[in-house]
Design a protein that fits this description.
This protein is an all-alpha fold and 240 residues long. α1 packs antiparallel against α3 and α6 crosses α10 (157-169). It has 13 helices and no strands. The protein is globular and about 60 Å long.
């Protein structure tokens, strides 16, 4: 890795390093939820994960070379993770009252795609020339997908989709991005406020993807359902 430029901090994080931090935080959170509910500090540490994943999703939306493949991967793992998710948190193979976080991320990515491609036939030439019209369209899209997350009862719900919106729309504005995280955490309750600390890690992102061969990429996705299955087995939540 190249040496940092003069005046640049040596403490910086690549996309891969952020994923590792988010994965470790998520594991800590789920250990607290499934195995050690009496240890509240595990859940506090776990609050760091979701904002980092939202940030990485927004970065992925900007840099991906194949959005359809990205969406397909999110969709496949959303459905593949549902049974492990239900086993871990409901002790059942099927629990329609709450859906796993991949569905939230999928809705967020669909929102980003639609916000970036306003229908010209519906909005006319205003979308080409008017910043106000584009902003109105973005708000409409945000409302639709936030409501969808809430109605489908996905993990983090509408607040999760709104956080993704802030991460993407204000990816070049750290202040607005931070404001979005704070507002979303407040809307979910004081228990989510430790998530604000994730901004410290996001702030140190160096814009580099980091070492990510394809097996590692798939591994980061598979990590979610696999670790939930392992925790379910340890907790005895898998019906036999």
């Amino acid at each position: 890795m190249a040496e940092p430029a003069a005046g640049q901090s040596r403490f910086s994080l690549s996309g891969t390093e952020l994923k590792v931090i988010a994965a470790a935080s998520m594991l800590t959170d789920h250990m607290g939820a499934v195995l050690f509910p009496q240890l509240l500090f595990l859940r506090v540490i776990g609050r760091l994960a979701f904002p980092i994943y939202c940030f990485l999703l927004a970065e992925g939306a900007v840099h991906t070379h194949n959005m359809k493949k990205y969406l397909l991967r999110l969709g496949l793992f959303a459905f593949a993770s549902e049974i492990p998710f239900d086993l871990a948190f409901r002790g059942s193979f099927f629990a329609p009252d709450y859906q796993n976080v991949f569905f939230t991320l999928l809705l967020g990515m669909l929102m980003i795609c639609l916000a970036g491609n306003p229908p010209q036939k519906l909005l006319g030439d205003l979308t080409k020339d008017s910043m106000t019209a584009q902003q109105i369209w973005n708000i409409i899209v945000l409302i639709i997908f936030a409501l969808a997350a809430q109605l489908l009862k996905t993990d983090y719900g509408a607040a999760g989709v709104i956080m993704i919106f802030f991460m993407y729309m204000f990816r070049d504005n750290a202040v607005m991005r931070a404001l979005g995280v704070v507002l979303c955490c407040l809307s979910m309750g004081m228990a989510e406020m430790p998530a604000i600390a994730s901004l410290l890690f996001i702030w140190r992102y160096n814009g580099r993807r980091g070492w990510q061969p394809q097996p590692l990429q798939i591994g980061f996705y598979a990590y979610y359902p696999v670790h939930l299955l392992i925790l379910s087995a340890i907790a005895g939540n898998i019906p036999i």
